[in-house]
Design brief:
By secondary structure, the chain is α/β, with parallel strands linked by helices. The protein has 2 domains: 283 residues, Aldehyde Dehydrogenase, Chain A, domain 1, CATH 3.40.605; 179 residues, Aldehyde Dehydrogenase, Chain A, domain 2. The protein is 39% helix and 22% strand. It is built from 15 helices and 25 strands. A 7-stranded mixed sheet has the order 19-20-21-16-15-22-23, with helices on both faces. The protein has a 6-stranded mixed sheet with strand order 12-11-10-13-14-24, with helices on both faces. The termini are far apart. The N terminus is likely disordered.
């Protein structure tokens, strides 16, 4: 699948990818490397430059040096550059999709049709949003208040492995559009499409130092970046435990943070719901092998229709092919890494030991070493680990409720608050339940429908802040109010 060269490059799915950092407009290799393997079959993809404090310092310095000129362009000056960046991503859709699939095991068809186009849209949307953003003056009796949105400076963006390119551009787009310069720390388990992203940005005319990529292990490269005293913003998507460490480092330098973290989202089905639609959507929670923070992993079903819905879900899951994500018809691919497989297995084994009953699945799938069977666990109690903690694998739990009060208590009964799904034909019930659930995003009779203008983020242990539209732009800006005394100018 891959061929490593002696010049810090590798060929992945017939695509040449640099394995060096991108700092100050040039490729910078490190003496140390880490190995990158494909979860599809365990094949070796590349030896990737492993950064640390030296590379972090160089990248932040390059970003700081490039900041004044990039900020001075203004939103209109940055717009054509970023639109070329987005178009460059679109033009390399096939290559980016193939590399991402090899690197993290996600479905090739989904990367080609959804994730890569969305990555391009992320860049273009925020470039246009910044260029069109206008705020009316705020009139007071004696002064007129003019709100300005100045670029904040250097932003460190730390991205996850479950959709590396799309989730990187979800941060890169607004950060650059707001006038910041950036250092991207890609995930060590799937770093390769972020390296290609740097090439595309350079070809589009993004100036040297405006976008930098430092690869490496989180405890080394990531830790050096978030502790850096010359960083003005930190945006992180990943686990709650890692966010705690980043938050401690950021607190020492009073650096604002934005965290999009894990979830244990409830998937609620009432007796009056469209059960076929609900069943299809429940089965869809196994997408990307369950490695989706938003997934509704706790299925909560009104008791009167529990058996009926379970049969429909079972049928949908049975028709979902587990296998090579490059093959047509595959619905569920591998887990990302042996550590992830061990984690998922541990959760399931401990749940079974505590009395949980697998309705289906519960073991390794015959497709390969990192493939886990789609799993549904019943006979679970609210205080069990499998209900309370994020598994991040193809594992759902099945619980029933008798009325809305019991449902709300169960749904809100974890430390998370990222998302929720509610299936019902009653608009009144939908609003009643939506008002009571703790969740940053709540989908009614649908799932994973996203508008970039809308806010996205989590409550409780699922995050700090919101991303999307003005919420993203506010985070990446220093907001200044200029109050001018009325009638004081000639």
């Amino acid at each position: 699948m891959a061929k490593q060269s002696k010049t810090a490059r590798a060929t992945i799915a017939d695509v040449e990818v640099s394995t060096a950092h991108w700092i100050g407009g040039k490729r910078v290799p490190s003496n140390r490397t880490f190995e990158d393997f494909s979860p599809i079959d365990g094949s070796h993809l590349a030896n990737v430059s492993a950064g640390g404090a030296e590379e972090a310092n160089a990248a932040v310095a390059a970003a700081r040096a490039a900041f004044p000129a990039w900020a001075a362009l203004g939103p209109q000056g940055r717009l054509p550059i970023l639109k070329r960046f987005a178009e460059g991503i679109r033009s390399r859709r096939e290559e980016l999709a193939a590399v991402e699939t090899a690197d993290n095991g996600s479905l090739l068809s989904r990367n080609r049709e959804d994730m890569v186009p969305r990555a391009a849209h992320n860049i273009e949307f925020f470039a246009e949003w910044a260029a069109k953003r206008q705020h009316k003056p705020i009139e007071s009796p004696t002064v007129t208040n003019h709100v300005r949105y100045d670029p904040s400076g250097v932003a460190v963006l730390i991205t996850p492995w479950n959709s590396p390119l799309m989730l990187a551009t979800w941060k890169v787009g607004p950060a650059l559009a707001a006038g910041n310069t950036i250092v991207v720390k890609p995930p060590e388990w799937a770093p390769l499409t972020c390296s290609l992203m740097a090439d595309i940005a350079h070809e589009a005319g993004v100036p040297a130092g405006v976008l930098n990529v430092v690869q490496g292990i989180g405890e080394e490269a990531g830790a050096a970046l978030v502790a850096h005293e010359d960083v003005d913003r930190i945006s992180f998507t990943g686990s709650t435990d890692t966010a705690r460490l980043i938050g401690q480092a950021a607190a020492r330098t009073i650096t604002p943070v934005s965290f999009e973290l894990g979830g244990k989202s409830p998937f609620v089905v009432f007796a009056d719901a469209d059960l076929d639609a609900a069943a299809k959507t429940v089965a869809g929670q196994y997408n990307n092998a369950g490695q989706v923070c938003l997934a509704g992993t706790r299925v909560l079903v009104e008791r009167s229709i529990a058996d009926d819905l379970l049969g429909r879900v079972r049928k949908e899951v049975a028709a979902s092919k587990v296998g090579d994500p490059r093959e047509g018809g595959t619905k569920i691919g591998p887990l990302i890494h042996p550590d992830a497989f061990e984690r998922v297995t541990g959760f399931v084994e401990r749940a079974k030991a505590a009395g949980a009953e697998p309705l289906w699945g519960g073991n390794r799938h015959e497709a390969g070493a990192l493939y886990f069977q789609p799993t549904m666990l019943a006979n679970v109690k609210q205080d069990m680990e499998i209900v309370q903690r994020e598994v991040f694998g193809p594992v759902l739990t099945w619980q029933t409720f008798k009325d809305e009060d019991e449902l709300v208590e169960m749904a809100n009964g974890t430390k998370y608050g990222l998302a929720a799904m509610v299936f019902t034909r009653s608009e009144q019930r939908a609003w009643r339940v939506a008002d009571r659930l703790v969740a940053g995003s709540l989908w009614v009779n649908c799932f994973f429908v996203r508008d970039l203008a809308a806010p996205f983020g989590g409550s409780r242990n699922s995050g700090i802040g919101r991303e999307g539209g003005d919420w993203s732009m506010d985070f990446y800006s220093d907001i200044k109010n200029v109050s001018i005394l009325k009638g004081s100018f000639d």
